[in-house]
From TrEMBL:
The keyword Oxidoreductase applies. It is an enzyme of class 1 (oxidoreductase). Transmembrane segments: none annotated. PANTHER family: ALPHA-AMINOADIPIC SEMIALDEHYDE DEHYDROGENASE (PTHR43521). This is aldehyde dehydrogenase (NAD(+)). Homotetramer. Residues 35-494 form the Aldehyde dehydrogenase domain.
Length: 515
């Protein structure tokens, strides 16, 4: 089912939001980065690009800010993030709507993205009083050994279009409480939401000053706008000891070695080729809903999107035809319209990749349900597609790599071990799930011999992670972890301190050295 609606002009709405959120006019120019909306393909604004010189100056300001910010007690830094969270709460409707307008996410997902930002701010505020180090038992008398966590320095963040603001916040909220300034290079496809977020950060900084907590140093939060060249400035600058980069595995292959060459830390969150297993005992109604959201939600443009499905042969015929019907009935359309579940792809390139993958799938013997562009929606420059469900004869062809579009490949399996082996037989290792009521299978799936991913779920799909857990994956996903649990440690440096409060000088390991 598709919906055709006439809603207010995307451009007018976006410009009104940018004004309300106090994005300065100086952010725009006659020439620069053209911000388009995937809803209609229309140009919303032209954003001034940051030159390499300006990017270096921004890093310089951040490096200066570090000297002051690292000395502010962590709970006070947390107070700044608390104000940021309040600002985001107040701006939730506007910023969520702007995510919809700029990235094409449906309304509830645009709002959900801002909720994720609020949640990570709350988490970081609590964390600001919990940056704990250990006290370690020492082998020497009259000694104490402990570890101290210190701020690390400027944190670079490179984010992707599909989570244009939440991914920044997972990094930035932690970095700020950890004592690190942030220089952010948003996706060139979504500069507007980044500018709006920066305006909210600046307001929180002003409120922090007005509350008498002292100034938030200029340069604590910087945004640099542009393409790959600008990201490279961030990656190459020795004043940036940690870079968190979200995007394709191809991008990570370039960024990772550059950071390694200068011994900087990399937090890489790259591609996913996420799978789910539907076992004989699965609750099929629940599995159906979980699969539909994970595979079609966000028009298949999450790095946690479900892309491969292994269904046990005993339930295949009860599940897959139902799933094909759900695919046939899903509401595709303007993401602002009530009832829409699948909005547009981000651009023509995404559409072409989807077409190519579906051609390859057919050539590999796949039976395709759905797929193809929906005519008459959004205009020429907008790409609305029918999500595709592809029954594959085996795990071959395009199924082995990530295509950032709503394609779900389905394969039959016979035995659990075979399903797990197929599950793990791809390059990426981000997210995974199993639908089963058999506790042995569930436990084996999350055990060391089960899923090899950073996220392994039971009876929920692979997408839609909460911020409380560490987010990220293994293998070609890059190994980085962001958001909850102890991901904060990547933004700090650990010092081990041994203190001698005695008069003797016992050496470790019983070494004697008498002078
Ligand atoms: C991403 O697609 O870049 O688990 C991240 C999820 C979201 C994050 C996705 N919380 O789907």
């Amino acid at each position: 089912m598709t919906v055709h609606t006439t809603l207010p002009s995307v451009r007018d709405e976006a410009l009104a939001i940018l004004k309300r959120l106090e994005v300065p006019d100086s952010a725009f120019a006659d020439k620069g980065l053209v911000a388009r909306s995937p809803i209609t393909g229309e140009v919303v604004a032209t954003v001034r690009e940051t030159s390499a010189e300006e990017a270096k100056a921004a890093i310089g300001r951040a490096a200066e800010a570090f000297k002051a910010w690292r000395r502010v007690p962590a709970p006070k830094r947390g107070e700044f993030v608390r104000l940021l969270g309040e600002g985001l709460r107040a701006a939730k409707d506007d910023l969520g709507r702007l995510v919809t307008l700029e990235a094409g996410k449906i309304t509830s997902e645009g709002l959900g993205e801002v909720q994720e930002m609020i949640d990570i701010c709350d988490f970081a505020v609590g964390l600001s009083r919990q940056l704990y180090g250990l006290t370690v038992a020492t082998e020497r008398a009259d000694h104490r050994m402990m570890e101290t966590w210190h701020p690390l320095g400027v944190c670079g963040v490179i984010s992707a279009f599909n989570f244009p603001v939440a991914v920044w916040s997972w990094n930035a909220a932690l970095a700020f409480v950890c004592g690190d300034p942030v220089v952010w290079k948003p996706s060139e496809k979504t500069p507007l939401t980044a500018l709006a977020t920066q305006a909210i950060v600046e307001r929180a900084a002003r409120r922090y000053g007005e509350a008498g907590l002292g100034p938030v140093p200029a340069g604590l939060s910087e945004v640099i706008v542009g393409g790959r060249e600008i990201g490279e400035v961030l990656v190459d600058d020795p004043r940036v000891p940690v870079v968190s980069a979200t995007g394709s595995t191809a991008m990570g292959r370039k960024v990772g070695p550059k950071l390694a060459a200068r011994f900087a830390r990399a937090i890489l969150e790259l591609g996913g080729n996420n799978a789910a297993i539907v076992a004989p005992s699965a609750d099929l109604d629940l599995a159906l809903r979980g699969i539909a959201f994970a595979a079609m939600g966000t028009a298949g443009q999450r790095c946690t999107t479900l892309r491969r499905l292994f269904v046990h042969e005993s339930v295949y015929d009860r599940l897959v035809p139902r799933l094909a019907r759900v695919y046939g009935n899903v509401t595709i359309g303007d993401p602002r319209a009530k009832g829409t579940l699948v909005g547009p792809l981000i651009d023509a390139h995404a559409f072409e990749s989807m077409e190519k993958a579906l051609d390859e799938a057919k050539a590999a013997g796949g039976k395709v349900h759905g797929g193809g562009r929906v005519a008459g929606l959004g205009g020429e420059g907008a790409y609305y597609v029918r999500p595709a469900l592809v029954e594959m004869p085996g795990q071959t062809g395009p199924m082995l790599h990530e295509t950032f579009a709503p394609i779900l490949y389905v394969v039959r399996y016979r035995d659990f071990d075979e399903a797990v082996a197929l599950h793990n037989a791809v390059g990426a290792g981000l997210s995974s799930s199993i639908f089963t009521l058999d506790m042995r299978e569930a436990e084996r799936f999350v055990s060391v011999e089960g899923s090899d991913c950073g996220i392994a779920n039971v009876n929920i799909g692979p997408s839609g992670a909460e911020i409380g857990g560490a987010f990220g994956g293994e293998k070609e996903t890059g190994g980085g972890r962001e958001a909850g649990s102890d991901a904060w440690k990547a933004y700090m440096r650990r010092a081990t301190n041994t203190l001698n409060y005695g008069t003797a000088l016992p050496l470790a390991q019983g070494v004697t050295f008498d002078v």
